[in-house]
Design goal:
Blueprint lengths: L1 E2 L7 H10 L2 H6 L5 H22 L3 H8 L2 H30 L6 H5 L2 H11 L8 H20 L10 H31 L3 H26 L6 H12 L1 H16 L4 H7 L2 H13 L6 H19 L3 E2 L3
Antiparallel strand pairs: 1-2
Amino acid sequence: MIKNEFKIQSLGMFLAAGIWGTWVIILKGVTLPGFFVTAITSLTGSLALLIVILLSGKWQDFLQTIKAKSLWRLIIVVAFLAALQNALLMVSFKLAIAGGGSVLIPIIRSLVGVIIPFTVLFFRKGEKFSLQFLFYGALATIGALSIFTWGGINVGRQISYFGLFLAFCSVVALAVQYIFLRRLAVEMAKEGRSSLNVIAFQSFLSFLFLAPLLLGYLLINREIINLNLVRQLLYIGFFGLTHVALAFIFMFKALKYVTAQQSQIIGYLEPLVSVTLSILFLKELITLGYFIGASLILVAAMAASLKTASIDYE
């Protein structure tokens, strides 16, 4: 049994959430379908990590990690869920922008803090249902809803119900993903595996899951294969270094010490950052509701992160 006190272990989740929150600015200038973003960033993020591994002389460690059968099932499940939920999120987010609202999707995504405690009930191994985290998640959800409904934010009423459905599906996939991410982080710590190796492998698998969809789209829409496509791919690819490689490293470091439920509550900083950037750069309006909602999210995130977590490696 390893018991930790709150010091800086949850800082990784705060940093990862902050990085992911900048998608609202990045996607505004992208005309490609949303799944391109997930596929390309997964690819470039994994390649960047593989280069670091190679240059640091840790290639044999990487090979040993991907040969570890005890981790294979978890890595594959996490990679598939990451590809699925991110692709659904990006597609729905692009639909939201096209409908006139850059921050509609976080309304649906904000439900994850309430959904994930109940998801834990179906995946009991490694984590228990927490009524306290359910309360914190509900508090953060109320904060998010107050921002997106009466906080002066343009919610893009033109978005289709299909887009909203995709966003909700991404929330469910995200909740399940974090259950398995938590398990993976525990197994990695138990076996002494490097998070760098696991993230590189998992990100590359996520790309492989989306590659057929990406290639199929290009074959059907060959007219988009031009210099502008190359420029957009390079633009998107750059953010694989930050939004995949760097953010996932921060997250895996934190998941060894915080539960899946805690991590999702802290993750509410992601939509908060998105809204703040929308206000600053996308000319969204701001009212008192934004400040009230932001305060509730910050209180819930800090309260959840201050709770001592225990990890049983037995």
